[in-house]
Amino acid sequence: MEQLWxxxxxxxxxxxxxxRYLPEGDGHPVLVIPGFGAGxxxxxxxxxxxxxRGHAARGWGLGFNVGPHDRVRLGLxxxxxxxxxxxxxxxxxxxxxxxxxxxxxxARQQPRSCAR
Length: 116
Prior knowledge:
4 helices; 3 strands
């Protein structure tokens, strides 16, 4: 599979100036989910920008996003539980492209674990 993260990173650089308008964080976890064909490397700059604003940004830790497979679904469920201390702390979800679809579905399936 062709790695798309260089293209995604270039697109991110276009919106980089807007990151200064991100709200201040309160330190709760933020799960950043990469787009199709990309991995945590593609969200490094975004997670760093979130961290500079006080968010506890974390990668998804599932390697390359190769589409909706059981490994992805189960892995995201486990990662959300891990970051939310098994439901005790809210987690904000940020998804890029297909990662945004995953984030929306994850929030719909586990609303108690997600920040509003």
